[in-house]
Structure formats: C-alpha cells, structure tokens
Amino acid sequence: MSTGTCELCGSPASSVCSLCGRLVCPDHYGRDGVCSACLSALCSFCGVRLSIAKCVYCGRLGCESCLVQVDNVRRACRDCLLNVEVKVEEARRGLERLRSIVARLREASIA
C-alpha cells in the first residue's frame, strides 16, 4: 500500500500504477494494476504496452511493436499497410490495363 496523494486528482493514494509508477487513488486504479491515464493510452492492437503514435490511416493508437515506421515521422498498423499494399497493386494492374488499351487505340488509329 502506498502513501501520498493521487497524481491524477490529489486524493489520498492507495496504489501504484504498474506501467508508469504513478501514485493513484482507488478511483484512478483500473484493471491489471494500471491507472486510468495509462488505460486511455494503451495500444489498441495488443492492449499491453503504452502507445507511441497513431496509425496514419485508421487513427488507432499503437505501440512501437504494433506499428511500422512509414517514413521519418509517420507510422501505420500492419492491417492498414496490407490494405494499402493491396490497393496499390490493384491500381498498378489497372494502370497496366489502361496502357494496353491506349497502345491498341494508337495502333488502330495508325492503321
């Protein structure tokens, strides 16, 4: 049992958050020994670690293990990256079909 005041509201603290180490009162002490501040910042994918960013596509919070770095700033979840990859491949195939049609039209207009 901890002594001191809750770092979230100032009430008498009775517990310590297992993730961040904050002293918290019973009102801010949630499931699995995690404070309400950490609960709201947990990774939406694994639900175990604290999030570090949002997926640039779906906006869900993710931890370092569940998000993939897209560039120097942005991160994306694996689900969205797979969907984007599929859409890019579909667009690439569509572009190839259009190029083929244009080539046939050019050949027809020359003949």
Outline of the structure:
The chain is α+β, with helices and mostly antiparallel strands and 111 residues long.
Topology readout:
Blueprint: E1 15-16, E2 23-24, H1 36-40, E3 53-54, E4 61-62, E5 67-69, E6 75-77, H2 78-110
Antiparallel strand pairs: 1-2, 3-4, 5-6
The best one-word shape is rod-shaped
Q: State the share of residues found in helices, binned by percent.
A: 25-40%
Radius of gyration: 25 Å
Domain tally = 2
Taking the sheet with the most strands, its summary is:
2 strands, antiparallel
Distance between the termini: 89 Å
Strand portion, in percent?
A: 5-15%
The assigned structural class equals alpha+beta
Query: H/E series, N to C?
Result: EEHEEEEH
Number of helices: 2
- Mean pLDDT equals 88
Q: What is the total tally of β strands?
A: 6
Q: How would you write the strand order of the largest sheet?
A: 1-2
Low-confidence segments: none
